[in-house]
Amino acid sequence: MHASCRRRSIAGVSLSAVLAVLVAACGGQGEADRGSDDRVRVVASTNVWASVVAAVGGEHVEVTSIIDDPAADPHSYQAGAADAAEVASAELLVWNGGGYDDFFPQLAENADAPTVVAVEVAGEAGKDVAAHEHAESVEHGRDHEHSHEHGNEHVWYDLPVVSAVAERVAGELSDLRPQQAGDFEKGAADFTERVDELVNEIDEVAERHAGAKVAATEPLAQYLLSAVEVTDLTPHEFSAAVENETDVPVAAQQRMLELVSGEVDAVVRNTQTTTPATEKVVEAAREAGTPVVDVTETLPEGRTDYISWMGAQVDALAKALDE
């Protein structure tokens, strides 16, 4: 890579301006690279979507993820010049959307490459993420703990959407390399078959535990919890405060402590968003013997396969509910 394309911080200069310079500086080199290596260069916002692309494209793709550090938060990630260079040289761009990885569309704005945006794919599949209803069921003769419209952008926990993204990726790759179209179609079909097997496992968990009660430190895995048909009793004020990085109201904190101390069957914790408030909840759950299920926003270190990662989380949830 040219020296001008190496990692450096962006200070006082708009990202789009830097990207425009990098497109000019690195564009010729990108064409040369493509001439010597016919793999499709794909850049994804996180290693979750990168792993889906890799499953579809196999040996015909070279995939880079901007975020692959388990400690990084895509919501607040600050892109650098090296990130802009990666995007500028890509032939296909894949990101989540829905406000989750807002740094990425800024990078992609001036890039000359087709795009796949998971939240948009979800919308085309009839799932309006912006109007996703996160509401508790009315059970046990009482009103909802809370009921609100909550846009949940964490669509990689919605397995049918992930399959749809894989199919879209296969279509875009086929357009870029028509000679390998059959391989991309097979890659997507194989991946979707594995996703379907995981959906069947989730259905089996739902058969055993539909109606079980859980509390979550953040609505990261809400699509998975909905598929398992459990009831999420988390106070909205608690999860909203954690998501917005604001102080948790005292009443919401107290209610969560009561829930995890005996009213719920499991606690679901996002290990990449921990605060003193969430740690108090986890500590109280463990003291009460309530199982704690850890979930993550990106693939943890050592994991490169979406199916094995998601399958491990489904297994952990099932084990907790079985206790």
Count, helices: 12
Mean pLDDT: 85
First-to-last CA distance: 53 Å
Q: Reading side by side through the largest sheet, how are the strands ordered?
A: 2-1-3-4
Query: What are the low-pLDDT stretches, counting only 5+ consecutive residues below 50?
Result: 1-36, 130-150
List the secondary-structure elements in sequence, H or E: HEHEHEHEHEEHHEHEHHEHEH
Q: Largest beta sheet, briefly?
A: 4 strands, parallel
Global Rg:
21 Å
Number of strands: 10
Structural commentary:
This protein is of the alpha/beta class. It has twelve helices and ten strands. Helix 2 (47-57) crosses helix 7 (181-209), helix 7 (181-209) packs parallel to helix 12 and helix 10 (250-263) packs parallel to helix 11. It is globular and about 60 Å long. Residues 1-36 and 130-150 have low confidence and may be disordered.
Task: List key phrases describing it.
4-stranded parallel β-sheet, disordered N terminus, 13% strand, globular, alpha/beta
